[in-house]
Amino acid sequence: MSDQQNEIKNVLRENEFFRGFSEGVLETVIPLLTSCEFKKGNVVCMKGDESDCLYIIDKGEAEINVSSVEGKVITLGILSDGDVVGEIGLLDGGPRTANVIARTDVHMYKLSSDDFETLLESFGPTELKAVASYICYLFRRATNSLEETAFMDADIRVARKIIELYEAEHSEDRSDFELVISQVALGQLSGLSREATNKALSHLEKEGIVKREYKKIVIPDVDALYDKGQY
Questions:
Q1: 115-123 contacts at long range (C-beta below 8 A, 24 or more positions apart)
Q2: b/e per residue, 114-123, with b = 16+ CB within 10 A?
Q3: Mean pLDDT in residue range 21-29
Q4: How far is CA 108 from CA 26, 87, 149, 193, in A?
Q5: For the packed helices 125-151 and 154-167, what is the interaxial angle rounded to 10 degrees?
Q6: Which of 112, 124, 180, 216 is deepest in the core (most CB within 10 A)?
Q7: 38 backbone dihedrals φ, ψ, rounded to 5°
Q8: How far apart are CA 79 and CA 99, in angstroms?
Q9: Using one digit for the tens of pLDDT, what is the confidence trace for 120-163?
Q10: 3-class DSSP assignment, residue 116
Q11: 170, pLDDT greater than 70
Q12: How far is 158 from 192, CA to CA, in rounded Å?
């Protein structure tokens, strides 16, 4: 196996969807993938589009959002290295459920729906269990998000969302970092209004946990952030 193929396999191993697959099936996936790139701001796919492929992010970030007919946009999530998008449409055959926009320049690997159908023929009990576990992972994540929205203090919700974004880009080393995100987007991810998000950030700033700067949030003490988020 070439160095590039090994790199792709490592990306698959870090992916929530593929990580439970057997080595043999992972090696079957690799030659089916095609490389693609999207510039910052480019549309990867739109809600309602045909689900003709899934994408695996190799490098960069993509934003998941939905928009109303009036043009209001709500950010649902931010994906980064190792994440997958478009997998649900391949599993159920339905259309895209959200818009995906490149938040930075992004390099991805694409698996077409036709190739996914071919891949299904090689699935054994290990892969079926992995897919079932992934669906359970999505359900648990949605349930936890709903619980946080309904019961959790706004300050903790914002702190937890920042932790989630931090962990998407960092290892276990809790070094200080800067988060480039608008308060509006952070509020949407946390299920809060802009006003509630601003108030929560003000509280966190007074506690020395965050520091707001132009178009970014600086985290000077990651341990304090984790303590606030009750991790």
A1: 115/32, 116/53, 116/54, 116/90, 118/32, 119/25, 119/28, 119/29, 119/32, 122/24, 122/25, 122/28, 123/25
A2: ebbeebeeee
A3: 93
A4: 17, 14, 32, 32
A5: 150
A6: 112
A7: -130, 130
A8: 12
A9: 999 999 999 999 999 998 899 888 877 777 778 899 989 988 88
A10: helix
A11: no
A12: 9
Sign, CA dihedral 176-182-185-187, equals positive
80 contacts: CB under 8 Å, gap ≥ 6: 57, 60, 61, 62, 168, 169
Q: Which two tokens stand for residue 208?
A: 């020395």
The full DSSP string for 53-114 is EEEEEEES-EEEEEE-TT--EEEEEEE-TT-EESHHHHHH-PPP-SEEEESS-EEEEEEEHH
Distance CA 132, CA 124 (A): 12
- Residue 6, pLDDT > 70, answer yes
Closest CA to 219 of 231, 205, 200, 230: 205
* Structure confidence by residue, pLDDT tens digits, 212-225: 888 788 888 888 88
Query: Cα separations (Å) of 98 from 84, 86, 101, 189, 230?
Result: 14, 9, 10, 14, 31
pLDDT at site 189? 83
Q: Of how many residues is the chain composed?
A: 231
CB of 64 closer than 8 Å to CB of 75: yes
Helices and strands (H, E) in the chain, number of each type: 9, 11
